[in-house]
């Protein structure tokens, strides 16, 4: 069941996109498309910029793992590795510190 | 003494690197200690029904209130911060909205329309601060991941609604009831993501100050603040203040989901808190409960120019978890000496407490103001950040530097 709703509850159209999140541009580097295709399904990509550049590779790995294990994001192992590499190199300290 | 020295060394080292970002963020009044990525992506943007706020993320929407709005005791509805975990946020029609009260510990489950909620129970209005558990997360050093809030993930309002305990009374709760949980209409973009469901201990649910609110500051709740009704848990972190609430569940067992078992938890015993949520506590961690004692300086703004010889009026607000603010002190010498500010009107123990302080600008150059609040149970703001993995309960004394010329 997608959303357990009361019978009495009427919903108007979803108001997900108010402002224009298409202005967000991630750094052009290997892996960017994989990041955009997976991550933007559930949240805008400014979450990545906002959480930078302080995370080391372990922190980005923990974040991606949380998205998969806790939030159920359907990201396969190969994509997860690409995403962690991209984020660590472009929005992190580059490696474990 | 050590505190002052490390402050100054830190400031000297950090200054060149921060300079460019600080200029870019100047218009927003952002603290230069936020992550560099936050300083470059944050922007002033207006959601429907809101004035421009500091956008941290578009989807789900996380927008904070610029500090200057806290010069008013009550935060205007259209400037009130917006915080969501999940991105499917339906507009709810108040005419067809319904609230279901049930659960394994409710002998008499029932439903309420908005009209019935307003008609069947005595209305009550309480002034209370709603503050995100992670307010000021972005100022943690070292930084921790999450929404990188500055000072504005909070707002003070007059909440009108009905007592949760009056509603629960009608459900004929079992003696075994240990928690009351809440769910709203906002949900995830993806089926497998856990719905945002939060619980509070039964004793807090029965507190006469815990409400199901349908108005703030004399008006219907704005969409982005939980229309048509939300939970209000005065003194406690905003995570329990469920927006768009449609289901209240009486439980004989602890709520078991990501949002209770993994999120919004602090290391057990690390903070000087009184109220405990024992059915969710483990040796390692415990749910966040009441807010820690805290304050901000709302005027002057950082970087303001002050005329030499003039008398500067410093303004701010203070708050805690509901014990009551007893003093606010201000220092103009990096914390070596402190003088008492004048407290403004007391409109209730869960509200902002405004304060003012006068200082003469007697020497040219930078003037740094610091504020610290204390409460009725002897707690004072910390001078050394209490580290915790998720970046909650930041109550380091606020510093604002101006230039006397």
Automatic annotation (TrEMBL), chain A:
Record's keyword terms, sorted: Signal
UniProt superkingdom: Bacteria
Family matches, as InterPro entries: Cyt_c-like_dom_sf
Signal peptide range: 1-19
This protein's name: Cytochrome c
Species, as recorded: Microvirga terricola
Automatic annotation (TrEMBL), chain B:
Keywords carried by this UniProt record: Metal-binding, Molybdenum, Oxidoreductase
Oxidoreductase molybdopterin-binding domain residues: 88-259
Origin species: Microvirga terricola
Lineage: Bacteria, Pseudomonadati, Pseudomonadota, Alphaproteobacteria, Hyphomicrobiales
Protein name: Molybdopterin-dependent oxidoreductase
Top-rank taxon, per record: Bacteria
InterPro entries for the chain: Ig_E-set, MoCF_OxRdtse_dimer, Mopterin_OxRdtase_euk, OxRdtase_Mopterin-bd_dom, OxRdtase_Mopterin-bd_sf
Cofactor (UniProt): Mo-molybdopterin
Limits of the Moybdenum cofactor oxidoreductase dimerisation domain: 287-404
Pfam families: Mo-co_dimer (PF03404), Oxidored_molyb (PF00174)
